[in-house]
Amino acid sequence: MIQGVHHEMWPSQRSFRSRYGKAAQRLFQKLDPRFQPQLFLAGIRLGSAARLPVVCIEPGHDFWLDGMALAHALSVAEQIGRERARMPSESPSASMRDHEFRGALQESLRRIVNTHPARPEDSYFAVSLPVQVDEFAVAAVVGLQQSLIEAYPALADEYVTLGEGRRLRVATSLVDAAMLEFLDRVSEQLFLPDPGRDFTNLDPDDLLRAAGQNLINGIVWRVDQERLDGMEHFASYCTNIASLLYEGRASAGNMLLARRHDPDLHRHVRFAQPIELSRIRQARKLIELTSERFSLHTDSEKVFGLVEPPDDDAPRQDRFGIRFVGHQHWELLYRKLVLMQVKFGLPALPEPPFDEDRLRADLPRLFRRISPEAVERLCELVKEAERQSHGTMLVITADAAREAKRLCVQGTPVEPCLLTPTLLRNLTPIDGAVILSPEGICHAIGTILDGKASSKGDPGRGARFNSAVRYVETSESPCLIVVVSEDGGVDLVPDLRPAIRRADIDQALSELGEFQTAMTVPRRRYAELVNWLNEHRFYLLESDCRQLNELVESIERRSDADRRAVPIASKPFAPHPEMDPALYYHVEA
User: Cα 523 vs. chain centroid, distance in angstroms?
Assistant: First the structure.
């Protein structure tokens, strides 16, 4: 019989999940602030003790995954084990048999969780290797938004084939590598006595560096499994090359990572003797020979000459590009798509293209009378600015003519003219901002912006971004500045919060109000509503906060007999001083 899923597998399990759940947030939101990781624990009873439930899940109260769903995890794992069985002549050691059992149970849980009908919409879950904690095999499970994972380039194959039909799991992307690394670290903590009693801090930068190294390991595995030194050192070779100047110039060039004897490469220059990539200064010098057409050929350990990749688009996963794009900055590419960028040794996801839908939504919110044609024109101009190899700024202001005149001594005013993408391409190579009206009329180029110091600046960002923040803070007219950085990425200043429907808040408050008189409070739904409102605190008006605080106090007072029955709001709701209903809410039809 499947008993309730909420059970104390070990004393500190709640603390364990809470602490490492916060560590997951720090890691994945450093990759992309939009990630909302979910972490839970799944325990499968290994012994036959009838006093214990077959399955335990933390958290257990009203969780979307119930014990019945995991009841057959062991039988599914046995089937997976049979599918993976070795040749009968082999006699694996006890430790190998244990590892294979854990791997089969890990895959069993992964399949069950990701195919469960109650799985949260738009989510994908990865599972750690289970670890025996007391009488349970316990796995950590972390989930991220599927659509956001898929927004970044990734390789198709999760495995590389080894000898004797064995396979090795390798990362397909930096996000995948981060999930694997995070779960490995959490799994290690489950081996400790009473896991969660003492907390081992998981530094997100350390996790990212390890994830980047693991991604590179898998890349080299895909290219040539004999390159063991390359697996260990290739990432550091690239970082060191990117750190060196040559005659005062930062690294700018590329390498092609491919097998030494790849028959499809067009070899234009062959070195008489291959050069060790570990000879960093010589490798940095050779980068100067490369161009958009020619790449320096390496197998991760040696450099062989200048090659030209074939023109075919076959989705082979044994050729990769390394592009050096500036001081301490290089990128890993697959078929011209950036899988990972590394700045000062720290891996990061590629800068996503600017959010055109967001720009289309923000322009009418700032410039109330802007026409659809003008919105389209400005979007095309921003896309053209993003394509430039250097940074720039577009200042879109309702007072463009007056601002061009006011700033004439620190810029170049021009006779008003309608900007086109082709014309913009010729106006941005010089320093300074282009000032234009919401209709796309250019009034000045090369303008140095002014403005008072602002607490909203970011010392970690460049001069362009911070000057844009200062200018917008002191602008008396509606203004939007598009900041294009030199190393990719587009920022919009001001960074408007997305508009949400007023009806969504009204619906949440109305549903909470019904719980006051309900016979029982549906704990899971209550938690969902309070958590959603907590995440959208900024949008609540004073009257909303007053009503919400009264509802929460009333509902939670009813649960005094069981304090775990409903979540306690972290702090009272209060209106945000910058909330403006006219700016942030969609008007309902």
Answer: 31
Whole-structure pTM value: 0.76
SS3 assignment, position 443 = strand
Q: Tell me which of 242 and 392 has the higher pLDDT.
A: 242
Residue-wise pLDDT tens digits, 429-448 = 888 899 999 999 999 999 99
Residue 51 CB: number of other CB atoms within 10 A? Answer: 6
Alpha carbon distance 58, 68 (integer Å):
15
* Neighbouring-strand partners of residue 279: none
Q: Is 513 exposed, middle or buried (0-12, 13-18, 19+ CB in 10 A)?
A: middle
Buried b (16+ CB within 10 A) or exposed e, 23-38: bbbebbebbbeebebb
Question: Which tokens belong to 96?
Answer: 């190998």
Q: Which residue in 254, 272, 234 sits closest to 308, CA to CA? A: 254
Report residue 400 as tokens: 């463009």
CB-count exposure of residue 14 (10 Å: 0-12, 13-18, 19+): middle
Would you put residue 19 in left (φ > 0), alpha (ψ -120 to 50) or beta?
Answer: alpha
Exposure of 63 by Cβ count < 10 A (0-12 exposed, 13-18 middle, 19+ buried)?
A: middle
Query: Residue by residue, what is the 3-state secondary structure of 257-321?
Result: EECCCCCCCEEEEEEEEEEECCCHHHHHHHHCCCCCCCEEEECCCEEEEEEECCCCCCCCCCEEE
Q: Would you state the pLDDT for residue 466?
A: 84
Report whether 386 contacts 352 (CB < 8 A).
no
CA angle 358–364–367, rounded 5-degree value = 125
